Amino acid sequence: MLFEENTLAGIQLKNRIVRSATHEGLTLDGGLVSPKLTEMLTQLADGGTGLIITGHCAVELAGKAGRWQTMIDRDETIPGLTELVNAVHDHGSKIIVQLAHAGAAAMNPETAMGPSEIFRSIDKKTSGAMTVDYIHKLVKKFGQAAVRAQKAGFDGVQIHAAHGYLLSQFLSPHYNQRNDGYGGELENRERIIIEILREIKHQAGHDFPVMIKINSEDFIENGFTVDEMLRVCRMLESNGIDTIELSGGTMESPKHLNPVRKPDNSQWEEGYYTEAAIKFKKQMQVPLILVGGIRTCQFAQCLLDEGTADYIALSRPLIREPDLPNIWRDNPAHDSTCLSCNLCFRPLLTGRGVSCLAAKRLQK
Q: Do 206 and 248 contact (CB within 8 A), yes or no?
């Protein structure tokens, strides 16, 4: 049931609702945790979310995606992260940190690097390509970031391998044009992710929960496919991944297929990646978190009842209604009031943090 207590990778949860990683855009200088960021995540805890996944936290400066992104690249970040974790725990929820690297999509075009040289449509520049030595050092940095997360008290970490960021770029033949041990066949394209998983387990210990967010498919020409996703997930499972979150698309995907798609004129359909999730559950034993267009308590419960997913992840609905889990618990007939209009991302551009502008307009 959606609101039953349960255990995920040894983490005791009050329900099966997950806040999918969402860029908050609320840090102090240097990517340090701010009081506003702590307030936002404790509000989610008060609102009933069982497991909160932080917005993407960069493991090195060259992998930073945006100006107000949280960093976990150095020990200086640990005190603020510790305060954040303690606040969320005090308000009754569990929290894991998403470890990320933007790769060719990094904020600084001068230092941005991907698996290959990649043209950046945002500024018409081309990223660099990582050397094998750089890849090996970066794998270590993911492990070091996981240790910082452990010291800060996080309940686990999630590897960000979706949405066209670095690890998604490595997986996708659309971006990955390498001809060495990290390119070509899928076994090579997935290598960096398997190495990161093993490195985190090595540095943080095998009892520290490690999750991953991965695309069901890229929805672009010569992109990562569902069949490839299933093969990668089988390899992740055999290497001890604790949980997999299934998403999809990149910012280069068609607008109706990108990760934050808007509804078109046709009837809104919940569950963007349901078909991929069904295929996943037929082959995998590892718990599945499913995100993507879930807007009603009835549909969320149906996904659980049918065995399509083990946990339900939400992003934009929790920006609109941080207390949506509590609302659903008391009134399952309530539908999320999120319009999927994406106005919530506009304040990010000016450092005000993600927030629902549509709701604010209604209050005026």
A: no
